[in-house]
Amino acid sequence: MGQISISRKNEFPRYATGMPEEDRDFIDSRKIGQTLWASKWSILAITLLAIAVAAGLMQTVTPMYRAVSSLVVEPKGMSVITFQPPADPTNPTSDYLQTQLSLIQSRGVAERAVRQLNLTSHPEFDPRQRPYLMTRLKAMVSAIWPGMFPATWSKGEPLTQTQVFDAAVAELMEHTSVGSVGKSQLVTIGVTLEDKQTAAAAANALAHGYLDSRLDAQVNDSLNASRWMDTRVVELRTQLQEAENKLQTYRDAEGLVDVGGVTTLTANELSKTSDRMIDARRERAEAQSQYQQVQSISGKSAGQLSTIPAVINNPVVQQFQADVAKAQAKVDELSKRYGDLHPKMIAARSDLAAAKASMATQVNQVVAGLQNNYQLAQANESALRSSVNTSRAQIQDISRKEFKLRELQRDVDSNRSLYETFVNRLRETTATADLGSTNARIVDEAIPPLLPNMPRKSLILSIAAILAFGFACGLSLIRDSLKNTVKSSDDVEKKLRLPVLGVVPLLQKKNRARIARQFEHNDDSAFSEAIRTARTGVMLSDIEARRHVVVITSSVPGEGKSAIAVNLACALGRLERVLLIEADLRRPTLAKNLGLSNAQVGLANLVNGSARSGECIQQVGDMDVLPAGAVPSNPLELLASPRFSSFLDWARQRYDRIIIDSPASHSVSDAALLCALADAVLYVVKSDSTATPVVQRGVGQLLRNRAPVIGVILNQVSAVNLRYDHQSYYGYLPGEAYQATV
Question: Which of 107, 588, 592, 676 has the most CB atoms around it within 10 Å of its CB?
Fold first, then answer.
């Protein structure tokens, strides 16, 4: 059972309009989904209509065909002049590829294709066959008023061949697209035209035109390089001759034949002389040392001189010393046997004296030889020193000449090397000047496409469907935001500040008579449970005082208050004695919906005294029904008469509950009168139909008249709103029963 709020009579809070401040910035996604689902058929219709319009418009668009040719463009190879400085290795290949893409899209390549295919006479490229929009407008205007404009307006200004050619080139460039495939070196050339054969031919012509332009550029580069190198060779030959002449002139002026050989010979002589001078210096030092030893003992005897190492080491002196020693030994031996006057002694002394004299002579000769050797060593050292100084001066002079000579020789060698290089390259370039090679080649030639590239029907239809769907959804949300109605129990409590006694679902495809006795048939569980919930709310309102008379009204006609009154009376009739009174004397429908036989006798007849209660009240199922009867001319006077009040007092004694079907509160004043006589008022609001201000004014008027409004019954709630309503009174129903409501 759903939530029920019970209020005492005359203690109802004032109704409030609008949403509470804390909820105004809250975006309810479920409510948005509810609104879109409720408008699903409108959204679908708008989407299908947009798709149909887009499909129709595409039928009027001329199909365009795109033919594509593929090339592979490799990085730039070696330059024609290979001794030029190499390119920067850090330069990325993508820059070169972008340059080639720009060359393919250049005007020169397009002009080649236009000339090759003779596109100036093609209908898609000839501006004379496809005049511009302004020309067509001028022709149309001049055709309507021929006398007001010059004749050139209708014929158009004549175009020259150059203008026609330029227009054809511009048209081809406009319909051409060039791009690379990913990060590869593959390049595609696409041409989009109405004529697929021409599109394929143009794509191939652009590809071949690009290759031909590259070949022509290379041939021109080779010829220009040849001419430049020819001029440069002449200049280099002149420079080489001038360098050779300078070298020869210098040789002649200095008398140089073989500077390298002269320099080498002089250097060898200087080296040998230096070695000899070192030896002479050493010999002179030794001779000087020996001579100084002799001079240190000058005036001494031969015996003393013989102690000098330079003398004693002389082999001859050593021999004489040995002879003196031998003679001395003989004298010493004979002196032991003989006297001084003995002949042998005399002979021995004579031999000793002779030996010493010979040794002294020899010592003097050795000393004299040491002096001579010292003098010769000094002279030899001086001569060698003078020779070394002379050779050194000659070498320095030759080195200066050699430096100048080598400088001139380097000029000659560099000029000769550069000249020979240019001569060789000139011969190679001249021999290969007519040989063309390119770093690009065609991979796939374009073929006429089978299907048009434009318009892309699937994409356009998808975009049209998405845009139309979004537009329809936005329109639905805007319409819903502008449509200020009561949709759910939350809206009732927020906008009316009244409790909800029941949320009655919408019954589809059922007539009024069927709806009037829907609770009795019990073929819709949700509807029956809604009526039971309303019945429970009415019965629980009797806690403090018995509410015998219950008036059911609404803001405007058509909100289903009569159906609610009949079904609520039927539900109460199963538990209580119930009288259902049709007080809508202006537009009565109760008797017809219930299928009563005597529809002419009812409340109007009873109040005016033309009929008795027994004749007017009829039993229908578990309840008694008092129809409106004959439509009177003064229904308000009848309801305000004492006889009607007396009848209500009589009915209170006989029935537990009296249900009065009142007219709409905004239509006539009957509802206000009936609500004043009632113990309880149920206000019926049709979901998502009646404007909120209208409901607020109706409820406010009743509350200002101190009518005992105990709650609202939200009627004809759609399946979406019913599912969304988190305060729905039927959430506890079995799955089968709830599915029947949606």
Answer: 588
Between 472 and 130, the higher pLDDT residue = 472
- Type and span of the H or E element at 239: helix 196-254
**Angle (deg, nearest 10), helices 670-677 and 692-704:** 50
Q: Are residues 477 and 570 in the same domain?
A: no
Q: Which run of H or of E encompasses 2? A: none
The radius of gyration of the chain from alpha carbons, rounded to an integer in Å, stands at: 69
Q: Do 597 and 675 fall within a single domain?
A: yes
pLDDT computed for residue 733 by the predictor: 40
Q: Over 80: is that where the pLDDT of 318 sits?
A: no
Cα(720)–Cα(704) distance, rounded to whole angstroms?
35
Cβ-contact 505, 741 below 8 angstroms: yes
CATH number at residue 672: 3.40.50.300
d(CA 125, CA 120) in angstroms, rounded, equals 6
Name beta bridge partners: 189.
Answer: 69, 178
Domain that holds residue 99: 65-72+91-207+437-444
Task: Please tell me the distance from the alpha carbon of residue 198 to that of residue 269, in angstroms, as a whole number.
Answer: 93
3-class secondary-structure state, position 219: helix
Cα atoms in the Cβ-side hemisphere of radius 13 Å centred on 97: 18
Q: What mean pLDDT, rounded, does the chain reach?
A: 75
Domain check: are 101 and 55 in the same one?
A: no
d(CA 365, CA 306): 11
The continuous run of DSSP H or E covering 642 comes out as helix 642-654
Question: Residue 289: inside a domain, yes or no?
Answer: no
Cβ–Cβ under 8 Å, residues 664 and 587? no
Determine which helix (DSSP H) or strand (DSSP E) holds 184, and give its type and residue range. none
Could you identify the residue written with the tokens 């998808």? 462
CA dist., res. 274 & res. 256, Å (int)? 26
Q: Answer yes or no: is pLDDT of 429 > 50.
A: yes
Q: What is the pLDDT of residues 342-400, one digit of tens each?
A: 787 778 778 777 877 777 777 777 777 776 777 777 777 777 777 777 766 766 667 77
Residue 642's contacts (CB-CB under 8 Å, 6 or more residues apart) are none
Overall domain count for the chain: 3
Task: Report d(CA 58, CA 64) in Å as an integer.
Answer: 12
Residue 672 domain flag: yes
Instruction: Please name the residue ranges forming H helices in 507-594.
Output: 512-516, 518-521, 525-540, 561-573, 590-594
Task: Judge if 614 and 686 occupy the same domain.
Answer: yes
Mapping DSSP onto H, E and C, the string for 54-86 reads: HHHHHHHCCCEEEEEEEEEECCCCCCCCCCCCC
Per the listing, tokens 């203690």 go with 11
* pLDDT over threshold 50, residue 20: no
Highest mean pLDDT among 22-26, 303-307, 636-640, 710-714: 710-714
